[in-house]
Specification:
This protein has 264 residues and is α+β, with helices and mostly antiparallel strands. The chain contains 7 helices and 15 strands. The radius of gyration is 23 Å and the shape is globular.
């Protein structure tokens, strides 16, 4: 389905291969513990970014392997990277706690997973978390060091309409990621009936999409030529030729080849 969407976007854009779907490598059929009607996934512009590493799950539970996915992307223009986590938490139901315990478990799994992710420190958590900013699952993510970006730019933001508008879709960024976000807002194309008396049945979704504008910092790059840091000799980067290869030794003892590969 994701690839079909990407193909349709390419047809609409008139440019073959501009959009691509990320393969999550999940093979399943109805009845094996997954729900084929719900899926979290990624489609990206191949002329702007590339995938970095593999597509992974933040949960070991069958259903949430499909709806709690994350992928690292690399910006082609400057090699900057970020980890994008796309989620669909447990929906509210008629159980005693309306599914709250499962959503708390979803949030805990995210927090634990990203405490050990090493592909890049910049983490962006997105998705339909099926709870408001004040509810325990989101509170736990916020207390773990993530900031809600939709409310950062619009204190009255809402993304879902069932009666009155409410914010149950979220954009949560850790501090290093938040510093690179220039705007985040909901695009109201589905929930007009909150204010315009359009019936629920007339909207193709009860959720609005949102847009996050990001300006990634340039990745750290080791210079390809030796540079003297200051004039004093004891603070200079030393240059040595070893087997025809130029080696740079920094004042703290670290060594690098001219191509930036550290020598251990």
């Amino acid at each position: 389905m994701l690839q079909q969407l990407a193909d349709s976007m390419n047809t609409r854009a008139g440019t073959a291969g501009r959009y691509a779907a990320v393969n999550d490598n999940i093979n399943y059929t109805l009845g094996d513990g997954y729900d084929n009607h719900l899926k979290s996934g990624f489609i990206y512009r191949t002329d702007r970014v590339a995938t970095y590493g593999t597509n992974n799950s933040a949960s070991t539970a069958n259903y949430y392997c499909n709806t709690m996915r994350y992928q690292t992307f690399r910006q082609l223009s400057n090699d900057g990277k970020l980890v994008v986590s796309m989620n669909h938490f447990k929906a509210k139901d008629s159980s005693a706690d309306a599914g709250e315990a499962t959503r708390i478990s979803n949030a805990t799994n995210l927090i634990n997973k990203f405490s050990g992710v090493t592909t890049d420190p910049d983490i962006l958590i997105l998705g339909d978390l099926n709870c408001s900013y004040e509810e325990e699952p989101v509170v736990r993510i916020v207390n773990a060091g993530y900031e809600e970006q939709l409310l950062r730019f619009d204190a009255n933001a809402y993304s879902h309409c069932y009666g009155d508008g409410e914010l149950i879709d979220h954009v949560l960024a850790n501090s290093s990621m938040a510093n690179q976000i220039t705007n985040a807002y909901v695009k109201h194309i589905c929930t007009y009936h909150c204010s315009d008396n359009v019936s629920y049945a007339e909207s193709y979704s009860d959720h609005d999409p949102y847009i996050v504008e990001i300006m990634l910092n340039e990745a750290s790059i080791v210079p390809e030529t030796a540079v003297e840091l200051v004039s004093a000799p004891q603070y200079r980067a030393q240059k040595t030729l070893v087997n025809g290869q130029l080696i740079i030794t920094l004042p703290d003892g670290r060594q690098f080849s001219v191509m930036g590969a550290p020598l251990y």
